[in-house]
From TrEMBL:
This is Nitronate monooxygenase. InterPro entries: Aldolase_TIM, NMO. It holds the Pfam family NMO. It comes from Mycolicibacterium hodleri. The keyword Electron transport does not apply.
Length: 375
């Protein structure tokens, strides 16, 4: 394909792949798309190692880094001492998790620690410094307008800044803040998402940008796991697709093994948008864990970001390990971020194959569109 976004980013096919796994990032980039490493959960030292490895694998081909710096979070601007946020987790919430585990035959692990959260936003600047020492072609941010240091770093380094949005008005705020690329992410998406579907959000955002005279490119995201869906979004005016879920069941992904099995058999109705993982609504696989938290009827109201993820992430990791060893209660509780496209993800494949299938499916869809237009 030759489109302006392909020229701008030096890619063959405008398929952007968000993944926490460096192997997926390198495989997508080497197959002609653009891999984006989710960097938030790494320490700056670990991110440096991951990016060194990617540099060796892609040898100058383009890739990006995503660093979430939430615009709003508990404790923001209070300059808290380490551990002070932990003290804000009420005792009854720790008790609630203990009881939920007990009801699934999982004894409380007294070593279980609530701990720091990668969503507290406090490592964002250090991670960005590391990323900018590498030949990245894109930096992305989610959960609000990027912090001024990210916009400034983008301007001074010439690396475009992308922002995820789930609503028309958020796209306008991002344009006013100076981002270079909008990712219009519908509610179908895995991870944090809004309430508007991709099919409605993409044209809404494109129209809103046109009204303010902005021609910055818009990528479509949310539920896109095939080339035909990508073609539909390009037909609506998107410059390409930004994807996350589809890489979770690739050979390269580091998704917990039991969760992969759940994803392969899940239907598009087996996800829920719940704040029970991070404190902000995010789409995940339905499980006994998500059922225990609001908005599920009778569920516990989650704590705000990042307290909820500080409370639950170590436990969810322990659940994954127990589920992998065959513990039935843990298998009922196991969950992970994934979008509604999970219903179409039925086979483990190499990431490169996923890209090649996207291209084939995209071309067939484009042909169907073209055939539908009279000569
Ligand atoms: C497991 C997982 C983790 C995610 N984590 C982040 C993240 O750290 N930063 C971010 O900007 N987006 C994150 N996202 C959202 C993706 O960037 C992307 O917008 C979304 O996956 C697109 O929808 P899809 O899952 O239907 O492809 C995550 C998505 C998934 C599935």
């Amino acid at each position: 394909m030759k489109t302006s976004i392909c020229d701008q980013y030096g890619i063959d096919f405008p398929l952007f792949a968000f993944s926490h796994c460096r192997d997926v990032v390198a495989a997508v980039t080497n197959a002609g798309g653009l891999g984006v490493l989710g960097g938030t959960a790494f320490t700056p030292e670990a991110l440096e190692q991951e990016l060194n490895w990617i540099d060796e694998q892609v040898r100058g081909k383009p890739y990006g880094v995503d660093i979430i710096v939430p615009a709003k979070f508990e404790g923001k601007g209070e300059k808290l001492e380490a551990g002070a946020l932990v003290d804000r987790i009420p005792a009854e919430y720790r008790e609630f998790v203990t009881e939920l585990l007990a009801s699934h035959d999982i004894p409380d692990d007294h070593k279980r620690r609530v701990g720091g959260s990668s969503l507290s936003g406090d490592t964002g600047e250090a991670l960005l410094e590391v990323a900018l020492r590498h030949p990245i072609k894109l930096m992305a941010n989610a959960l609000g307008v990027p912090p001024p240091y990210m916009i400034e770093a983008g301007q001074s380094s010439g690396v475009p800044v992308a922002a995820l949005v789930g609503a028309r008005e958020h796209a306008l705020k991002q344009v006013a803040a100076g981002v270079d690329l909008i990712i219009a992410q519908g509610t179908e998406a895995g991870g944090h998402c809004g309430e508007v579907s991709t099919l409605v959000l993409v044209p809404e955002v494109l129209d809103a940008l046109a009204e303010v005279g902005s021609d910055i490119p818009v990528l479509a995201a949310g539920g896109i796991v095939t080339g035909r869906q990508m073609a539909a979004c390009v037909a609506m005016g998107a410059a390409g697709a930004w994807t996350g879920s589809v890489w979770l069941t690739t050979e390269e992904a580091e998704t917990a093994p039991h969760t992969v099995q759940k994803m392969l058999t899940a239907t598009s109705r087996d996800t829920i948008r719940s704040a029970g993982r991070t404190g902000k609504p995010s789409r995940q696989l339905v499980s006994d864990w998500t059922n225990a938290w609001a908005p599920n009827p009778g569920g516990q109201k989650p704590l705000p970001l990042p307290l909820q993820s500080m409370l639950v992430e170590p436990t969810l990791r322990r659940i994954d390990k127990l589920a992998a060893s065959g513990h039935p209660g843990a298998q009922e509780l196991a969950t992970y971020f994934v979008g509604q496209g999970v219903g179409l993800m039925n086979k483990v494949k190499p990431a490169r194959t996923v890209v090649l299938e996207f291209i084939e499916d995209y071309l067939a869809a484009a042909q169907r569109l073209s055939d539908s237009v009279p000569d």
